[in-house]
Design brief:
Layout (H helix, E strand, L loop, with lengths): L4 H26 L2 E2 L5 E2 L5 E8 L2 E11 L10 H4 L11 E9 L3 E9 L4 E2 L14 H15 L10 H12 L8 E4 L8 E3 L3 E2 L6 E4 L2 H8 L5 H10 L1 H4 L2 H19 L7 H11 L2
Antiparallel strand pairs: 1-3, 2-3, 3-4, 4-6, 5-6, 7-9, 8-11, 9-10
Helix pairs in contact: 4-8, 5-6, 5-8, 8-9
Length: 279
């Protein structure tokens, strides 16, 4: 029997309280003080973050929890591995610690530099137009160019997995002919304003050329003016065969998320986009 809504809500409450305890444990380990106010919870409560005060000034503390069998691989150390990316405005991991409940869950806490600013959106998908100056867009373009040229052996997702995702979600066959380094999860909750900052580096690695531009465009479909600005900023990337491949890949990935219950309002715009892109 499926759990009731009340049972799900109670389970979420208990898990969020447990995650608050993990945040406190990490703060004690690093010798920092969690700032007053509500912490920030990540996707499905799997992470918790908050600004903290340290003897060296303001910092950011994040704890992620995962079932032990999944607490490994590139994504698990992505934020710290991203310290190799320089020349853009992003957090830098200063220290990390892990602990676990044997045979159940593993936790990883990361103490980072604090990047001032506010997220462009409280959700991944932009639900209202966002007003950003031309300089912000120019810096976004420059930053993605820096990321794309950063060498790495990390892989966001390999070609067989990408082709399977597109085939399963869209019934289409694609080939990835060009690769670059990508952030891998570029959406509006991971972008700061008024000065651009780029957060959440778990998933960065090699991906199809145009993945980040395509991701931001797909997450903008509910805000047509902003979507048009994204397209114009990356027109040379998106309006090309490689851009079409990236858009189909991202649309397939987001439609899979829709099937899991995330941002259902994107389903129709994404399907219209796929119809426009189909050969």
């Amino acid at each position: 029997m499926d759990p009731t809504a009340a049972e799900v809500a109670e389970a979420d409450r208990q898990f969020s309280e447990w995650m608050r305890g993990n945040l406190d444990r990490a703060a004690e380990h690093f010798g920092v003080t969690v700032a007053a106010g509500e912490p920030v919870f990540g996707w499905r409560l799997r992470s918790i973050s908050a600004p903290v005060d340290s003897p060296d000034g303001h910092r950011w503390l994040r704890v992620v929890s995962e079932q032990i069998q999944w607490a490994q691989g590139d994504w698990w150390t992505g934020n710290r591995d991203a310290n190799t990316i320089t020349g853009i405005r992003k957090p830098r991991v200063l220290d990390a610690v892990e602990w676990e409940i044997p045979e159940v869950r593993r936790q990883r806490a990361e103490l980072m530099t604090h990047v001032p600013g506010r997220p462009c959106s409280g959700t991944d998908a932009l639900r209202a137009e966002v007003e950003l100056p031309a300089a912000w867009w120019a810096e976004l373009r420059r930053s993605l160019d820096v990321i794309s040229s950063t060498p790495t052996a990390r892989m966001r997702k390999d070609e067989p997995a990408i082709r399977k995702a597109v085939r399963d979600a869209l019934g289409l066959s694609i080939e990835v002919s060009e690769w670059e380094t990508v952030h891998g999860d570029l959406h509006w909750a991971n972008l700061l304003q008024p000065e651009l900052g780029i957060l959440d580096w778990e998933l960065w690695g090699r991906g199809p050329v145009g993945t980040d531009a395509a991701s931001l465009y797909c997450y903008s479909l509910l805000a047509p003016r902003t979507a048009a600005t994204v397209w114009n900023t990356f027109a040379d990337v998106l309006d090309s065969p490689t851009g079409t491949t990236a858009l189909l890949y991202v649309a397939a990935r987001l439609l899979h998320r829709v099937d899991m219950g995330d941002h259902p309002e994107l389903a129709d715009p994404l399907r219209r986009l796929v119809d426009e892109l189909e050969p």
